[in-house]
Specification:
By secondary structure, the protein is an all-alpha fold. It is 83% helix and 0% strand. It has three helices and no strands. It has helices at residues 3-8, 11-34, 41-62. It is elongated.
Length: 63
């Protein structure tokens, strides 16, 4: 998810998307621990998207 796409989302959508991606990230980490993923870069991509969403939420709360 690009930063421009994230800025267009409402606060409720950001919170919902963040919850979904955190669950997906946890699932990816668990799957990768059991057996190596075909594309381990998915873990990094998901982690960074979670960070982008969390940063945008924090930024909006401080405004």
């Amino acid at each position: 998810m690009k930063q421009a796409e994230i800025k267009e989302l409402s606060v409720e959508e950001l919170q919902q998307k963040l919850a979904e991606l955190r669950k997906e990230y946890a699932d990816l980490k668990m799957a990768h621990a059991v057996t190596p993923l075909e594309n381990p870069l998915q873990v990094r991509k998901t982690r960074r998207t979670v960070a982008r969403l969390a940063t945008e939420l924090t930024k909006r709360e401080l405004q």
